[in-house]
């Protein structure tokens, strides 16, 4: 079940603009010492928060393993610079080049692994180790949620260890040289649970040829976990073919399989569920199934058109074990032209789906909404998601679905063509997520965190609920708990820092400003009201039905980790 309420239930009219008090107080969760950027993911009812940090200062580069004759190094550093680096004298400029070298050589597994995603618990300001045990970290690790029992959910790519490898002898190279190669652990990407000080892998159903793939998306307080993972090989790919691709002659088998999974996605990925036992240990995965052809749960059998790749991906689960997400639906009697591959095909689209035991059902009418997805469900069985009229063309419209009454509604957001994606709903029927707003004085759209209260019908840009000139631009809200505390990702102007973490100054000695992503927590202000900082342009975009106009603040668009949980 996903929590996401906000303390805004009492705004009957726009007359509150005359007040001076903000509705939310901003508390910075980031930055974390040693990192420039931070991103929110989840919060529980104890206000414990998790997320990810990136852009590490003083990145630990192994100077002894650098190829100083590579074109990247010689093209970006002078001979004098290279000699200083060899002596261990690395300034911010040369460190930036060395980091670029590692990133540029990502496909050369003789070169040190570069990573830029580190799992963090913000309330304790503690890095959480998922799969990696060595320093420096060799893999990407992300957290997605923390439940009320303090159990933490996340996923991580495979960590690497340096190992000697000797290629097989050939006629042209009868005496191959042994080299030190960075070799990955099995499991290209695996879900992880950290519970009672122990770490557990969320194993998928299919683990051949590289260890499989699993990514959890949500879990409940009573131990339901949902996500997706590998259940077999894709149609047309055989185990014999996979075996023949990685014989271990030219590279380690584990590295070969890892590269195949990364490049060609051989696994069939679909929805999975795990259940924790009484000791908090995850049991084996269970496949959730898919909508299939005409909601039959089966693939279509036509041979005159290409097969459809059927899958499912749950986004959230509540304490009753009801999961919601997306699944592939097809209609083998409906043949349509696909504008992406220029051919006629069986009509197949993604549809918002409810997974309840063995029963799988659709939320939206595919004849009206060709593409849809559910993102969150609470313990009252209220579901939030987004849908679009045409599967290949937006916008995505925010919907609320009451599973008990099977009533589907589309709340009014900021403007009709805005894409609005909910992230979470709490037990108070309040929703947070991401929508679109306009930059002041222009037609340029920007991402903005939103809050919606089902009880009052109020839909607001969360930026309008902060104090005037707060210094933050909320671009995405990830989660909200039952105390109406929200976690979000904002941008903020700060003193620019170089690769070593030192403040960058201009020629006059003044700090240069830059905009960074920062994880924040929004605390409800008792009896708070919207501050008086609107402009005529703002009021021109206010919506009927209780929605509040947006403040026009430009923002830096950033790649954000998607999250929908609990």
The amount of beta strand, in percent, is 35-45%
**Could you name the ranges where pLDDT drops below 50 across 5 or more consecutive residues?**
1-20, 536-566
Largest sheet: 5 strands, mixed
Structural class category = mainly beta
Which whole number gives the mean pLDDT? Answer: 90
User: What's the CATH C level of the largest domain?
Assistant: Mainly Beta
**Backbone CA Rg:** 25 Å
The tally of domains stands at: 2
CATH fold group of the largest domain:
Methylamine Dehydrogenase, Chain H
Task: Report, as a whole number of angstroms, the end-to-end distance.
Answer: 4 Å
Name of the CATH architecture of the largest domain = 7 Propeller
SS summary, helix count: 6
- The 3D shape can be described as globular
Give helix % range.
under 10%
Number of β-strand runs: 31
Write the layout of secondary structure elements.
Layout: E1 24-28, E2 35-43, E3 49-56, H1 71-76, H2 79-86, H3 92-104, E4 118-121, E5 126-127, E6 141-146, E7 152-157, E8 160-165, E9 179-184, E10 189-195, E11 198-202, E12 214-219, E13 224-233, H4 239-245, H5 253-264, E14 267-275, E15 286-287, E16 292-293, E17 312-317, E18 323-338, E19 343-356, E20 359-362, E21 371-377, E22 382-388, E23 397-402, E24 407-409, E25 421-425, E26 430-438, E27 445-453, E28 458-461, E29 472-480, E30 486-495, E31 513-524, H6 536-540
Parallel strand pairs: 16-18
Antiparallel strand pairs: 1-31, 2-3, 3-4, 4-5, 6-7, 7-10, 8-9, 10-11, 12-13, 13-14, 14-15, 17-18, 18-19, 19-20, 21-22, 22-23, 23-24, 25-26, 26-27, 27-28, 29-30, 30-31
